[in-house]
Amino acid sequence: MPAEVRKAQVMGSKMANKAETAFLAKLEEEKIQFSSELGTLKQSFEWLRRLKDYKTWINYEEDNGKINENIKRAVQTREMINKREKLFNIDISAFDNLSELEERNEPFREMRDVSFEFERSKELWKDGALVKVKYPKVDNSI
């Protein structure tokens, strides 16, 4: 192998190693930050879980929706982190606390969807044209 090619190979290898090290360091920083964000998200969920009655639940509709969106975003972030870990054959970070949070949130997500749909539809049922209100649809929604 010519000396120039060998020199270029060595330089290329050094640059690749340097870029890989920087990438892995950035990935570790992101994982630490993500773990911290998961702790905050868990606290928010626990607050939501402690709401006792329907009126209070509805009054915090915006916060409720944000928590749900943050859980969805966290799942996407975990997937992106896992893809990058696979790229470098690193052990995949499970973030078990996120999986647990997803499972615990599911009944609340379903209740959120039903209750918010009910609240939106209630005004139409109450004040809307009676002809437009379809009994079977209202019955299914309740």
Q: How would you characterize this protein structure?
A:
The structure is a single chain. The chain has one domain. Helix content is 84%, strand content 0%. It contains 5 helices and no strands. Helix 1 (3-49) runs antiparallel to helix 3, helix 1 (3-49) crosses helix 4 (96-127) and helix 3 packs antiparallel against helix 4. The chain is elongated, with a radius of gyration of 25 Å. The model has no long low-confidence stretch (mean pLDDT 85).
Attribute tags:
about 140 residues, mainly alpha, 5 helices, elongated
Describe the secondary-structure layout.
Elements: H1 3-49, H2 54-59, H3 61-87, H4 96-127, H5 135-141
Helix pairs in contact: 1-3, 1-4, 3-4
| Total domain count | 1
Report the average pLDDT across residues: 85
Q: How far do the termini sit from each other?
A: 78 Å
Percentage of residues in strands: under 5%
Helical content stands at over 70%
Count the helices. How many? 5
Order of helices and strands: HHHHH
Low-confidence stretches: none
What is the SS-derived class? mainly alpha
Any idea what the radius of gyration is?
25 Å
Query: How many beta-strand elements?
Result: 0
Q: What is this structure, in a nutshell?
A:
Helices cover 84% and strands 0% of the residues. With 142 residues, the protein is mostly helical.
